[in-house]
Write a structure and sequence with these properties.
The protein is α/β, with parallel strands linked by helices. It is built from 8 helices and 12 strands. Helix 2 links the parallel strand 4 and strand 5. The chain is globular, with a radius of gyration of 18 Å.
């Protein structure tokens, strides 16, 4: 029996995950573990660790923006995991102008044609309400793809109204940390959202999710769907390192990369299996 040490102590990982062929199906058992990945290596680690699907993005370091189709194609080439694609045209808030909305519509169509299993979208009006008019157009353009509401939900003015609007638009998932920095901090709202969703829409808990948090959130909230990055810092292969020149975020070490930890995903999957499988 393999054992891993997480924040909650020893976790039994002597379980059997789906084969790669089985991963192509819609859902594994009674729970979902989604991993946010912004590179091929992280997508491979997520699949090997036992994730059910990935949310593919680029630039996770700034919260994730829309990935390029070359990355999507490579992830499909090297994994069999289901892929939902984050569509976010830029860093920052979720109040988009007409050009950004046109970009989003084209990206929905593009990823539908490329065979994504779903897209992850969201737009807000200046007053903090969901931009349901334009979001409905995105849902329609998605056709038979799953459509998830991303974490614009966590900065909207009324989460209960937004939940009902997401259901009415035919969205499949709400990604949320309960309007707090972490899912654990937002656990009270998460529990209320799970109750109010009444099985009509998936509540996908996010924000600092790892095995120890899942172990506490499942019994306290009833939520069985979780979103994590499982990120670890990896040193760049660069040996020569120029001092005093930054290529983007001067507050960050550009020679440290974020990558998904297969081990962290495996721990989280093990906890979900033991509690919900």
């Amino acid at each position: 029996m393999a054992e891993l040490r997480g924040q909650t102590g020893i976790i039994n990982t002597d379980i059997h995950f789906k084969s790669e062929e089985g991963m192509k199906g819609e859902k594994m058992g009674k729970y979902v573990l989604e991993v946010c990945a912004d590179c091929v290596e992280s997508a491979i680690a997520a699949e090997k660790g036992g994730a059910d699907r990935i949310e593919l993005c680029s630039n996770l370091v700034i919260g994730g923006v829309t990935p390029g189709q070359a990355l999507f194609k490579l992830v499909r080439k090297y994994t069999d995991i289901r892929v939902r694609v984050l569509l976010r045209p830029r860093y920052g808030d979720y109040c988009y102008n007409d050009y950004e909305f046109e970009q989003l519509k084209e990206e929905v169509q593009m990823y539908r044609e490329l065979g994504a299993s779903g897209v992850v979208v969201g737009m807000l009006n200046p007053d903090g309400t969901l931009d349901t008019g334009r979001m409905s157009e995105l849902v329609k353009a998605a056709g038979n793809m799953d459509v998830a509401l991303h974490r614009c939900f966590d900065v909207c003015a009324d989460p209960y109204k937004a939940l009902e609007e997401a259901v009415s638009m035919g969205m499949k998932t709400i990604l949320t940390s309960g309007q707090k920095e972490t899912g654990w901090d937002g656990r009270d709202l998460l529990a209320r959202l799970q109750e109010k969703s009444a099985g009509r829409i998936e509540i996908l808990a996010a924000g600092g999710i790892q095995a120890g948090v899942i172990e506490r959130l499942v019994p306290s909230s009833g939520i069985t769907s979780y979103h994590m990055s499982g990120k670890q810092e990896v040193e760049s292969a660069m040996q020569f390192r120029m001092e005093g020149a930054s290529m983007g975020l001067p507050e960050r070490n550009e020679y440290v990369l974020w990558r998904t930890s297969e081990e962290a995903v495996r721990q989280a999957a093990a906890v979900l299996h033991n509690l919900c499988g």
